[in-house]
Amino acid sequence: MELLQDHFSADDIRLISNIPLSDVHQDDIMVWGGEPKGEYSVRSGYRQLIRPMVISSHFTPIFKQLWSVNCPAKIKILAWRFLKNFIPTNQNLYNRRVAHSPICPRCHSYTETIEHTVRDCSFVRAIWNLAGFAWPTDLINECFFDWFCWIFAHSSTTKRLEFLILLWAIWTSRNKLVRNNVKQDESTVVNFSLNYSREITSVSSSLLVPQNPMLANWTRPTEPFVKINVDAAFNASLGRASSGVVVRDSNGLVLGSCFIPTLNVLSPFAAEALAALHGLRFPLDLGCMHVVLESDSLTIISKLRSVVDDLSILRSYIVDARLVSQAFASCQFAFTPRSGNEVAHCLAHLGQDSAVEMFWVEEVPPQASALVQADHRCSERP
Ligand SMILES: [Zn+2]
């Protein structure tokens, strides 16, 4: 630490101390920070390139609302391109000397700006009318961006979804006309869009069914395994993590529990990886030989299960955890939803208020005992 203080600023010292370190020697390697796996992909490269543009833009709040709409990405990306005016309307193509004329291919009367294409052309005005969309008349002179923001601000979640799908359908039907000379009428576009929107809403509500708590209870391991549940709590402003660990046998009885606070932790993912590492070391001390490590972090479980070399910034923790796992006669890694991981979650949060690590043998701290009893009841075999 003194060496760091002699050579680096306080900000740099904080960043250096956050670098995950391994217990075993590992050579330095270059990793790509844009993907959890640490391997370069064109998709993540593109995302890194456009990120400064999107973040610096004053448009950010509307983009946040746009990306949070529950619908296929192609529909949101098209809306994003409209907001950025990255759309090959005849006017845009004409300005770039690609098209011979800037005129609208539907009404042949006005310049095909993005506003005209999706809002002002008589054909699309009829579509919005049929679909039950209306806006104040003074918005007609506003740019696409302000119009879009107004609609979003004055629409429910369902209406936003319908709006995006209609935008997409209007643009798709315009392209069908231009490229294939296929002419759709207004009611076809509206009926298709509203049906599509209903379909998306019903699919997403049926996907919510697994959130039924009955399906996500804690379950007992089968003999001879013991189950280790781990979770992490993370305080980003302090760079402080806390691991919560509970070990239970096939009768649902607690063999041990602990929380371990750690300073200088990089991220919530690093905190989850550390929790897995702590969770593996603890039952080794208790003499367990067959273990299942259960975490609610799918990223960490996938990394631990993977047979390929981990190239991410969490590599040190993952390598250490895999090494420790080899000390057991058998060790499995399993994902559980949060509702199956409540005891570890509670322990991790208790550890946030503690300066030192704490261990309990054959019990949990009093704050977690009601959760253990609930797990015990719910996991009883008939
Ligand atoms: Zn027109």
Strand and helix layout:
Layout: H1 2-7, H2 10-17, H3 42-56, H4 60-67, H5 73-83, H6 90-95, H7 114-120, H8 122-130, H9 144-153, H10 157-180, H11 186-207, E1 226-235, E2 240-248, E3 254-262, H12 268-285, E4 290-295, H13 298-305, H14 315-325, E5 330-335, H15 342-352, E6 358-361, H16 366-378
Parallel strand pairs: 1-4, 4-5
Antiparallel strand pairs: 1-2, 2-3, 3-6
Bound molecules: zinc ion (ZN).
The site of zinc ion (ZN) has 6 residues, from loops.
Strand percentage: 5-15%
Shape: elongated
The description of the largest β-sheet is: 6 strands, mixed
CATH class assignment of the largest domain: Alpha Beta
Instruction: Round the mean pLDDT to the nearest integer and report it.
Output: 86
Low-pLDDT residue intervals, each spanning 5 or more residues: 54-58, 208-214
